[in-house]
Amino acid sequence: MTPGREHGVAFDAPLRDQLLGLIDEHRALLAGCLEGLTEEEARRSLVPSRTTLLGLVKHVTFVERVWFEEAVTGRSRAELGLPAGPDESFVLGPHDTITSVTATHRAACEASRAAMTRLDLDDVVTGNRRGPLPMRFILLHVLRELAQHGGHADILREQLLAARR
Questions:
Q1: Distance CA 153, CA 160 (A)
Q2: Which is nearest to 79 in space by CA: 89, 92, 65?
Q3: What Rg do the C-alpha atoms of the chain give, in angstroms?
Q4: Does 93 fall in a domain?
Q5: What is the pLDDT of residues 10-21, one digit of tens each?
Q6: What is the predicted pLDDT for the residue at 137?
Q7: Residue 114 lies in domain
Q8: pLDDT surpassing 70 at residue 2
Q9: pLDDT given at position 141
Q10: What is the pLDDT of residues 54-87, one digit of tens each?
Q11: pLDDT higher than threshold 70 for residue 32
């Protein structure tokens, strides 16, 4: 660890840069949860809900698109080709593979980063169903979602790898 930095984020960086750096860290951790797994392992259900590792990455792709496309552009989920609600975003189709879901996630993250290049923390976006929201709230919300799901992914991956023994 470099003094004055943690996970590539400078302690004295502007808040916006700190938030974006932490979000990127969690994006990478979630994308990495599928590395070295078989398609069957990535789809394996270990809990009563729809949560699988592949489903988690598909869901956080939905999160990226809802908060950085729908909220920012005002386009509806239907226009964006997104499920109506978060529960459906975990559902895997036969075409969903580690490669396809990871590529879609990477593209969504790139689009999110591009959207943020022209937005500041105090900018207000109006495309969310809750009404107008400052980008500060959106970044904090996305960070919370990614951290929560990253924890889920760590536990599921640990269970999958332990089952190999």
A1: 10
A2: 65
A3: 16
A4: yes
A5: 788 899 999 999
A6: 97
A7: 37-163
A8: no
A9: 97
A10: 999 999 999 999 999 999 988 999 999 999 999 9
A11: yes
Total domains in the chain come to 1
Residues 6+ apart with CB under 8 A from 30: 56, 57, 60, 105, 146, 149, 150, 153
Q: Residue 116: name the closest of 5, 8, 27 by CA.
A: 27
Residue 18 lies in a domain: no
User: What's 86's domain CATH number?
Assistant: 1.20.120.450
Nearest to 146 by CA among 47, 36, 21: 21
DSSP letters, the chain, are: --TTEETTEETTS-HHHHHHHHHHHHHHHHHHTTTT--HHHHH---SSSS--HHHHHHHHHHHHHIIIIIHHH---HHHHT--SSTGGGGPPPTT--HHHHHHHHHHHHHHHHHHHTT--TT-EE--STT--EEHHHHHHHHHHHHHHHHHHHHHHHHHHHHHT-
Lowest mean pLDDT: which of 7-16, 40-49, 92-101? 7-16
